[in-house]
Known about the structure:
The chain folds into 2 domains: 11-170 and 294-425, FAD/NAD(P)-binding domain (3-Layer(bba) Sandwich); 182-286. The protein has 10 helices and 17 strands. It has helices at residues 24-35, 68-80, 95-108, 156-160, 209-216, 250-274, 306-310, 378-384, 387-407, 416-425, and strands spanning 11-20, 40-43, 112-114, 118-125, 128-136, 139-150, 165-167, 182-185, 203-204, 207-208, 226-228, 235-237, 282-286, 296-298, 318-323, 352-355, 367-369.
Amino acid sequence: MRYTEPQKEINAISTDILVIGSGPAGIGAALSSATLGMNTIIVEQLGTLGGIATSGMMSHWTGDCNSRIYHEILQKSADKNDGAAKGQITKYIDPEKLKYQYFEMLDRKNVTIMLYTLASDVIMENDTVKGVIVENKSGRTAIFADTVIDASGDGDIAVKAGVPYTLGRESDNKMQPATLMFKVAGVDTDRAVYLPSFESTYETEKGELQSLAKEKLPSPAGHVLLYPSTLPGIVTCNMTNITDIDGTKNEDLVRAERICRSQIDKIVDFLKEYVPGYENCYLISTASLIGVRETRHFEGQYAITEQDILSSRVFDDWIVRDAKFNFDVHNITGSGLDKTGVQRKFPKIAGYTIPLGCFIPKHIKGLLLCGRNISGTHMAHSNYRVMPICVGMGEGCAAVAAYAKKHFVSYNDVDINVIHEYLIDGKLF
């Protein structure tokens, strides 16, 4: 069955730069854009800012990137920390503090924030994105912009604009599993075991914890990932798991919520019985956003590869620098680390760069990719998808958009040396 909507006029507004999504990439883009004097609007479909860092209840800033905005976020978080981490710069996240911290940072830059707002369609003129149609309680609005930065994670605007993409792994389009994060309280942190990676093990009187999890927990759960929090007695758990999921399909997202939530009580029982320090733990909170790791890889002017990362390649036209992480490929068919992934034993390499071409979609103007949806291979994506690197992507992306706006040039014709001066020293242009 099909239905044709009747034609009607809707309200319209305009801005210099429109950012879709307020996850780490979107926050970086909006702050960078406004710092450079651009009128900036950020659109978020959820009711709070931050994406996976807040609504997704991410445990910590994993990986690293030499981004001034990222380091500013860490410093401001330290200023707000309570409990065990009071005043300390730490990569562990307090999602509740971070939600309002982002409001403060964006408000200081006069960024227009639109929460509870879905970016539902793209406005095209030939091969150029001219804006986006959004919907919320106030109705439908057309937002026209000189540049739309798609930081939606899945590239929801890029796909509507017709940018070609590949789903997941190139060989079979399979994607990394998804996770729903949760926290437990009542942990004896003096005795508590923390296992930060799939390659981390811990022997107990009842057996090795990773092996016990694979045996005792309901498949496809079956691993132990436990992280400290900024608060005493509270631990963040990255242990639910759903495989064979396409995060671009609504029915798959619903299935992911159902299955991951069904695993939580069993995981808490496992922690109580087998993990030292967790004997009296109990569930206190669950994420309101499923953690989707991988969906669309869009076709850009350049696709960053595993080899680029391993060789610490420095591109002349970089807009992200000193990116550092491992190949964090979660098992596509079960629990634990995929056979292609390398975490703790990842080789010690210098940071790598990401070039401008990864952010510019082929054949489409007026649009920049930003975040885990940029142009890159499945293996490279397992490295660059993490939050600090995504903040750096947003910072660099917005600088390119601002320069193009101010100097009436295409993204390819920006003065990359000026962009680098801004990203390294904060020199405005």
